[in-house]
Each structure stands twice: as C-alpha cells, then as structure tokens.
Amino acid sequence: MKEVKDYKIGGNFSDLVDKMEKSGGFGAKSLGKAVQILETMNKEKCVRFLSFPACIVSTGLRGVIAQMIERGLVDVIVTTCGTLDHDLARAWGGKYYHGSFDADDTELHQKGVNRLGNIFIPNDSYGKPLEEEMNPILEELYKKKKEWSGRELIHEFGLRLEDESSILYQAAKNNIPIYTPGITDGAFGTNLVWFSQDHDFKINLLDDEKELSGLVFKKDIKTGALMIGGGISKHHVIWWNQFKGGLDYSVFITTATQYDGSLSGARLKEAVSWGKIKEKAKYVTVDGDATIILPIILSALYEKS
Amino acid sequence: MKEVKDYKIGGNFSDLVDKMEKSGGFGAKSLGKAVQILETMNKEKCVRFLSFPACIVSTGLRGVIAQMIERGLVDVIVTTCGTLDHDLARAWGGKYYHGSFDADDTELHQKGVNRLGNIFIPNDSYGKPLEEEMNPILEELYKKKKEWSGRELIHEFGLRLEDESSILYQAAKNNIPIYTPGITDGAFGTNLVWFSQDHDFKINLLDDEKELSGLVFKKDIKTGALMIGGGISKHHVIWWNQFKGGLDYSVFITTATQYDGSLSGARLKEAVSWGKIKEKAKYVTVDGDATIILPIILSALYEKS
Amino acid sequence: MKEVKDYKIGGNFSDLVDKMEKSGGFGAKSLGKAVQILETMNKEKCVRFLSFPACIVSTGLRGVIAQMIERGLVDVIVTTCGTLDHDLARAWGGKYYHGSFDADDTELHQKGVNRLGNIFIPNDSYGKPLEEEMNPILEELYKKKKEWSGRELIHEFGLRLEDESSILYQAAKNNIPIYTPGITDGAFGTNLVWFSQDHDFKINLLDDEKELSGLVFKKDIKTGALMIGGGISKHHVIWWNQFKGGLDYSVFITTATQYDGSLSGARLKEAVSWGKIKEKAKYVTVDGDATIILPIILSALYEKS
Amino acid sequence: MKEVKDYKIGGNFSDLVDKMEKSGGFGAKSLGKAVQILETMNKEKCVRFLSFPACIVSTGLRGVIAQMIERGLVDVIVTTCGTLDHDLARAWGGKYYHGSFDADDTELHQKGVNRLGNIFIPNDSYGKPLEEEMNPILEELYKKKKEWSGRELIHEFGLRLEDESSILYQAAKNNIPIYTPGITDGAFGTNLVWFSQDHDFKINLLDDEKELSGLVFKKDIKTGALMIGGGISKHHVIWWNQFKGGLDYSVFITTATQYDGSLSGARLKEAVSWGKIKEKAKYVTVDGDATIILPIILSALYEKS
Fold first, then answer.
1. Does the beta carbon of D107 lie under 8 angstroms from any beta carbon of chain B?
2. What residues contact residue C194 under an 8 Å CB cut-off, 6+ apart?
3. How far is D104 from chain B (nearest CA, A)?
4. How many CA atoms lie within 13 A of C224 on its CB side?
5. By the CB < 8 Å criterion, does A261 face chain B?
6. Is 90 exceeded by the pLDDT of residue C290?
7. How far apart are CA C142 and CA C136, in angstroms?
8. Which residue ranges form the domains of chain A, and what is each CATH number?
9. Is D110's pLDDT higher than 90?
10. How would residue C230 be classed by pLDDT, with cut points 50, 70 and 90?
11. Nearest by CB to A3, which of D22, D61, D95?
12. Which are the contacts of B143, defined by CB distance < 8 A and separation ≥ 6?
C-alpha cells in the first residue's frame, strides 16, 4: 500500500496535480490520475474522443475547448445540438452575459432574456440571428446537394466562421469531425426543420453512424475518451467504442450520482461490464463541475507537454 | 403565510401526499404539489407529454409506465433509444436480474453480464436477440416503404408485441406516439445502421419534428409535461413547447443539481425565462430517485381519480 | 440471480414497498429493503437508536418523529442542539411558516424572518421566546443541583411540555433518552452559556458518554439504528456501537455523496471496515430526502405491524 | 451586464482564477469570486474563522491546512473531534494509505484496516496508539488542574507535538485556538471519557463558548470565514457570528445540496436571513470537493500575496 503524505501548496499546476495524485485523497486523487491518463493518451497515437454538453459552450469554456482542438488534443467530437446553437450564436456576434442562478425568471422572460444557469442570453443574441444567418448558408448548401449528414453540415458551417474561439471553426479548420446524434434537439435542428418545409432537404441520420462505425472497426486502433458530463454524448462515445472491444483510456467528469441508475452518474467501471471500456483500460471518474475541473486538468497537461 | 403543522402517519397515499403538501416541508412539499399539478393536468383536457430516460426501463418501473399509458395518462412520449432497447429486449423474453452497484465489473464482463446500476443484464437477454428479432421486422417494413420516421418505426414494433407490461406495446395499442430524437444512440439505432448497409433504408429524421411542430402549433392548445430525468428527452419536450408559448403544467423529477449549469439539473423556473414554461404555469421540481418518487405520485394520483 | 419483474401501481404502502424491493431497482430496492430491516429490528428485542438533524424538526416531520416515540419504535435518540431549539420553540407556541428556497434573504432579514430551506421562522417564534421560557426552568433546575448532564436537562424540559407532537415531550413521557453530543451548538446551548454567566451552572459533558458506554457494553445486546442524515448524530451512533462489535441492523437515509470522503455521504458498508456495523449485519443506505423517504417507510411499517 | 468572454488556458493559478471569475461561468465563477473574497479578508484586519470536517485530515490536505496556519491565514479554528483523532494519530507516527472506495469492507475489517473514503487506516495507526499516547499527557495535565476547556486541552496536545504538517502543532505554535463543539464525538473524546472513569477529570464545555462569545462581542470587529463542508463546524461559526451582526466575508465549499433543508447544503444566502452573514457581506458558495477546490484557491491566493 502507498502511504498518504502531507503536502504543501507551492509550484505550478503540474506540481499540484502530481501532489494531488500522490497525497490528495478523495476527489483530488482522481483529478491527478485524470491528468496522467490524458497525458498517456496524447503520447500514444490513439484516437481521442471528446464529448461534452451544450451548457458549457455558453461560458468562456467555449474558448478553452476551441483551444484544445487547435492544440491537437482531439480527434473526434461528439456533442449535442445546443453546442451548435451557442457556438454559432456567439461566432455570429451574439453576446452572452453574467447573470445569476437566483434571478427572477418571469422578469427575465418579460425582458426577452433567457437564463442558462448563471448566464443570461438575450433573445437577440440567439434565436432570430441564428435563423437569419443559417438560412442563406442552407440555401447555398442545398444547391450542392439535397441530403447531408450531420457531420458534413456542421463542417460546412464551421468553414464559414471567422472566430478563433469557436469550436466549429477550429474543428473545421483542423478537420475534426463533430457528431451530434441528437441533431434536431435545439435551434440548429429546428432551423433545419423549418428549412425542409419548403425545400426537399434531408438529413441522412445513418451516415454519421456509418462513419463512426468505420472509425472504430479499424484494425488495431487504440481509442481514448475525455467525456464531460453524461447524457447522449457520453453514451454515444462509449456505445461505439464497444464494437472495438472498448476504450483503452477514459476520463469522465461528472456531477451526477450513480444511485439512480442513470448513465450520467454511472461510474466508468460500469462500462467495463458492457465491454465499452476495456478490462485493462486506464480510466477514472472525476466528480465535479467541468468549468472548474477541465481548466485545471488542461493547465497541468499543457505545462507537462 | 401558511403555517407548518405537525402531522402523523396514517391513511392512504392520497392522505399522505396531502399532508406532505400542507406540512411536509423541503422536498415533501414539492412531491405533494406534483400530485396536485398532475391531477389538474388530467382533469383539464390538455396534451400530456411524458419524458423519461432508458435506465428505468430496465427496472420494474417499465410496467408502471406501461400502466400509465394503459390508464390514459399520457398523450405524447419522448424518450431515448435505450428505452426501445430495454423494452424490446424484455418483451422478446430477455431476462433482467437484481444485481449490485458494487459488483466486480471485470468479472461480470467475463461472464457476459452487463451492469446497469444495480441491474444485471446478460448478453443473451439483450444484444444478439435484439438483432435477431429486429431484422425480420425491418425486412417486412422495408417492403412497405424505404423511408420511415422514428415514430412510425417504433409504432410498428409496438404493434408486433404481446406484452402488457411493454411501453411500446401499450403505446401502439393506445395510439400514443413515441419520439426519440436521439434514435441512433443505442442498440435499436445501431441495428438500423447495420440493416441500412445492405438495404436502401432510411430514417427520416425531420418528419418526427414536423409532427411535434404540428402538435404544438395547434390553436388554443394546453400542454402539460411529466418529465423524469434530464438529458435530451427533457430538453426536447420543453423545446417544442416554447413554440406555443410554453407549457401550462409541468412536473420534473431529477437527481441532478443546478450549480453546474446543466439542463438536467436546471430547476423548471429556468425554463420560464426561455418561454418554455408559461409565466403563470403550475410547475414543480421534485428532487429524488424516480424509482421511488414516481410510484408514490402515481399511487396517490390513482387513488384520487 | 433474482429476476426483475415489472410491476403495477395498486394496493397500500405495504404492497408498494414490497414491489419496490422485488422489482423496483435502483433506489426503490433500497427503500424496500429498509422497511424489511426496520420490521425485523422492531420484532427482535434490540436497542433501537434513532438519529436525525435539526432541520426536519422545523417541518411537519416533527409530529412524525414524536409519533415514532409514542408508538414505541425508538429506544435511544441522538440528535443536535437545533432539534431542541425547534422542538421547544414550537412546543411553546412558536409558529413556523411555509416559505420558499428562492426568497430574498435580505428582505426576510429586514422583516425579522429567518429562512430554513423553504420554511420561514419569524424571530418572535424562536429566539427571544426560547430564552424567556428557558430561564425560569433553568432557575428551577439550578436549585436542585448545579451540574447536569445533557440527557438529564433535556428530559427535564420534556417533562414540562404539553404538546403531543413534541419530540422532547414524547421522549420524556416514554422515558427515552435524548443525547446531543454538540449541545452548545445552537440556541438551547447558548442560553445555557448565558445562564452560566451569573450562575455557577455546569454541563457535565462526559456523563452522557458514560451512559452511552454503559448502554453498549451490556452483554449480548443487539442494536439497530435508523439514521436520518449524517453529521455528528450519525457518527455518534455508529461510534458507540463499535464498542459492542457493531450494529446488528442499520438503515441510513442520506442526500450526501461519498466521493468527497465525508461521513455524511459514506455508504454504510464503510462502517463495516471500522467494526461499527457487524460484518453480518442487515443494513442499507437509502438515497433521498428524509421528508419523503421517512413517511413512506413508516407508512409501510405501521401497516405491517 | 458584464459580457462572458471566451478564454484560453495559459498562465499561473492567479491568472486562471481571474479568468474563471470573468469568464468561467457556473461553478468556476464562484471559485474565482472565492479567491477575491479571501484576498480581501486577508488584507483587511478581520478575524478569520476556518472550519472543516475531520475527513480531509486523513488526506494530504492535513499539511495544506497546517501550512495555512503557519502562513498566518487563520485566526480561529472550529472543527470536529475526528480532526483531533487523525491529526494526533498521524503526528504520533500512524500511517494512512491510499485505498479505494470500492474495497471489500468485510475483508478490510478482518485485516484490521479501517476505510475512510478511499483512504485506508490500519488499526495500529489509529486506535490503540492514540490511547497510549494520550494517557500520559492527560495524567500530566490532570496534575495541573482537574477541569479543562476543550480549547485549552487541544492547545496542550499541540504543544507536545513535533510535526510541521500537524494542524494541532501549528495552531499551538502560532497560538490559534481550536474549538470542537462536539469534542466527545470520536477517539479523542472517548479517551477523555475512559480517563475520567478513574480520575476526577472534567471538561468545561461552556468555557469554550464563553471565549467565542467574548470574541464576537468585541466592538467594531470585522469577521470572515472560510468554511469547508457543513455540519456542526459550519453551524458553530455562523451561529456565533450572528451575535455581532453577521460575518463580513464568507466562503463556503460544499458538496451538499439545498433541497433537503440541510444546513450542510444551505447556500450562504440563507444565513443572511438569520443575520449570521451581513446583508452587505461579500460571500460565495463554491460547490465541489474540498480536496480539489481548496488547493486551487490557496495556490492562487499565495501567488497573489
């Protein structure tokens, strides 16, 4: 057994996460281990999945994720429709503001301000502009072909942005595919629905899945995943990875709890029983708010590389 | 202000939830209020949405949800692909077992047993059988037409079941639509992908959305929602309801927390700012495990009706 | 392995918790098991500990706990100073009101209203009256002797109440000891401090512990515990029970999570390693809000007895 | 309203927490604000309370807290008996080890290893040695006087240690009082009980409270509190601060949730209604595991000073 040593504050991020892994106990140990796993994942030439929910794209973490792509830490992204909504809204000039969890939501509604946790999103930063910007692009794309996969569509939108902090921009620029298995669940998807009402326009849902299938059925491929939050994005990553015998590396950041049987709260070890993570994989679940946990992990990771 | 009175145990479910609403405080008050809202929702002729995640379909709650449909408490269902997987697997004879959260997942994997919280699902209750049962039905449907919406497909599968405890069976029998905005995210969806590899078979993703759109754009319609858990199912229900000016009634059962900005943890009042719930709607968030909360609510509700 | 069966709503509390234990999965299974354990605990002639935090005494659950004592379900109580505060305040006529978690706390402060979750407690229901009622009793007791144990003091206050919904009243009447290892942490304790400033009045802290020690060192004694919430009350119960080789039965209701290493979130199985719960004990942790979980458990338990 | 800006990883802790406060959103914003508040608290000549639970003293954070005292960040400590237990056990040579939350607790018990979250504590690092080391010191102190306050006792034990990572050592050396309102709730307290069985030895419980009272009734005093976790320690800090009109500054780190009415989960704003925190105080609740949150906060704080 390894002894728990007392430690002192001092040094940089890299020092701190090392101390946490060696001596931090409880959640700190998991965070320290997460950095080690991600470091290995980046050194090994493995296919690195990143999944995350839309909510964090409404915060400054959008830039942090864009930077991850820019720095080459990500090979495949799986996320939700809301990510497209917030990323595009902000790339097209929409402004998001600091608010409060305790705001009066009726008052906000009357002012035309939407609340996302402690972020305020005025209607004119989000809904209408999104529709107005999307339509000309859809017209343009529709002229090319009538049926698109989600990944293709998202790529096309990314190509048309000029915002270094945009996730779609960086993904398009660096040729990183973005998959959104629930692409209709938000403003982006709904604008596709509206557009399809007077255009013979279609989303080929199965094409994205065939690509993911092709990806994991490659021979001798190693895969790793950094999964932020649960829901459909997390599930989609582990789901496809079962077909190659499971992830080799995995870090999961969550605030959810397991007792209710939810996938969002399920510890990664559960995925081992399903073969979604390999028995011998390196993996860790870090409990906590991604807006805090992720920047710490990345700060240490960048220092170490 | 209304005084808090002490109460005593005694009486039936209906009595208890009344006492909780009047005197229970904290979470009990929310549970009591939830029953009142659902009671009103059922009396009013409003369109009642039910959303839930897949995990609970692996428990005995599957029968409870089937019973809700049978008793006419639900008009529209929004759920995830995993619901289809577990409901079909069990309707086709797959057996699920009581297990433990603390099981050794490596050992389980070697035995071919998948763990879902404290439920054990042997491989032969789930994966292969699902594929073998689905394929002939897909062949049959493919002969009818090559492009299907998710709702249509699910209905067809439901029609072919004979299991009173099945959600798909009761939904088909009672003509209740089931929408799964992330239909590819699981075994059902993946079997569609495999099938489409040697068939010119397509899922029309946007058709489901057009139906939902048609549903909420009806004039003078009132809507209510019982949402169990967060994720894509919850979001999809509130998303579409914004287009009619928001839900009139809403009950949300969750174990998630709001501080991380997640939709799964967002209190319902947040949805008011977005116009997804009406300013004057009756709504309540009940914190707790749906396997406990839902049966209590329904027991009281059935007694009252 | 035991198969998971679907179930339907119908029947009384006793029926429901049986179904939950057999088929409920996730948290419902724990709740069902909790009822079974408590039933056995009551049948066996074991010493039954009850621990709980103060907060629930501000709700109608105060009456429910008083009723537990009245019905003979409890042999020893361990709780916090706040329990004394709220129980006495309300026994002496203080009125508590339904409020809201989202209230404006600055406004409340200016109005002299204290908020405890969603309960509002006006100053004149709590602080001053408590002091004014306590002092004459303390004068009276001081004349008897100058040094009191906590248990003795609490008993004397209970004897002077006339409120069937009071925990202290029922405990005194039924001769059930109440121990508060943190007796100074609240209004009751602070009034003792004020009183001792002009009286040679003392609390003998160690006497309570000697009694607890005497209790658990009895030969061949069996013990069980229903612990609501964590903190000092839970710890004190399991702490003393280690000296007799551990609890034989235990049910723990909590909303806390284990990843942070907290005792409040520690699953009961952790206590087995310490010998605070026997290796072969029957025990279960139920995750959820006690204002919901406890009344359900008791409703079923009373029906069964 | 202040706009949310995207940010990038880079720079030191101080840079990161600034970015979090300006752009992090959700929990990150709270963490950034916490650093600002603590910085102000240290610059202002206010009396700084530190409260924390015992569990973290079993991890390397023990050294981090000792360092806080050494660096002069703390004026008054309020904690639980378990802190004394773990701090003394380790100062006297007891070794704690890295373990796992998923360990087999029956097996551990049979090996004489106690589990505290993911920390393993062999019996011979903890129980017996504590008793053997404490007794001679108690004999020595008993010769001086027969009645001790908790604060005095703890100070005496601290004076006899030689361990720079010890909280009691640093507190004694720097003359920082440690109050434990539930001093009997653990090994330290129980050894006092055993000792008192054959010695006329007493703990004067009310003396500590009189000291705290003297502390907060000083004229024109400003107070601040860093409270880690809930329970009796948190409550005791805010409780006493109400008598001076409330805390001027406060940072609360918690993993608990408010819906159950618990004090551990109550947001700091609730304390404003009670006058335990001033209406105009600077305060923030940070949700997360203290083993992660505290080192980040301190790293930034030390860089800034």
1. no
2. C131
3. 9
4. 23
5. yes
6. yes
7. 10
8. 44-94+127-304 (3.40.910.10)
9. yes
10. very high
11. D95
12. none
Instruction: Give the ipTM of the model, two decimals please.
Output: 0.96
CA dihedral defined by B294, B275, A205, B128, rounded to 10 degrees? 0
Q: How many angstroms away from the CA of D182 is the closest CA of chain A? A: 24
Rounding to the nearest 10 degrees, give the CA dihedral for residues B267, B269, B271, B272: 180
Apex D15 CA angle, D12 and D17, nearest 5: 110
Q: Using 50, 70 and 90 to split pLDDT, how confident is the model at D45? A: confident
Whether C187 and D239 have beta carbons less than 8 Å apart is answered as no
Dump the DSSP string for D54-73.
SGGGGSTHHHHHHHHHHTT-
Any A CB within 8 A of B285 CB: no
Residue of C192, C214, C208, C233 lying closest to D80 (CA atoms): C233
Tell me the chain D residues in contact with residue B27 when contact means C-beta distances shorter than 8 Å.
Answer: 259-260
Provide the whole-model pTM.
Answer: 0.97
- Which pLDDT score is estimated for B219? 80
How many whole angstroms separate alpha carbon A249 and alpha carbon B137? 38
Of A58, A83, A89, A33, the C-alpha closest to A251 is A33
Nearest to B181 among A58, A184, A260 (CB): A184
Asked whether the predicted pLDDT for residue C219 surpasses 90, the reply is no
Average of per-residue pLDDT across D284-292: 98
Catalytic residue among A19, A244, A276, A278: A276
Residue with tokens 């990150």: D28
> What digits encode the pLDDT tens for the residues C86-121?
999 999 999 999 999 999 999 999 999 999 999 999
> Which string of DSSP letters, residue by residue, matches chain B?
-PBP------S-HHHHHHHIIIII-HHHHHHHHHHHHHHHHHHTT-EEEEEE-SGGGGSTHHHHHHHHHHTT--SEEEE-HHHHHHHHHHHTT---EE--TTS-HHHHHHHTEEEETTEEEEGGGTHHHHHHHHHHHHHHHHHH-SEE-HHHHHHHHHHT---TT-HHHHHHHTT--EE-TTTTSSHHHHHHHHHHHSS--EEBHHHHHHHHHHHHTSTT--EEEEEES-HHHHHHHHHHHGGGT-EEEEEEEE---STT--TTT--HHHHHHTTSEEEEEEEEEEES-HHHHHHHHHHHHHHH-
Name D221's Cβ contacts closer than 8 Å, sequence gap at least 6.
D46, D47, D215, D244
Q: So what's the pLDDT on residue A217?
A: 87
The answer to whether residue D209 neighbours chain C at the CB level (below 8 Å) is yes
One-letter identity of residue C259: Y
CB-closest option in B26, B102, B260 to D260: B26
Residue C128's pLDDT is 84
Which two structure tokens, joined as six digits, stand for C290?
A: 């006690």
Q: What angle do CA A185, A187, A192 make, to 5 degrees?
A: 85
A276 assigned to active site:
yes
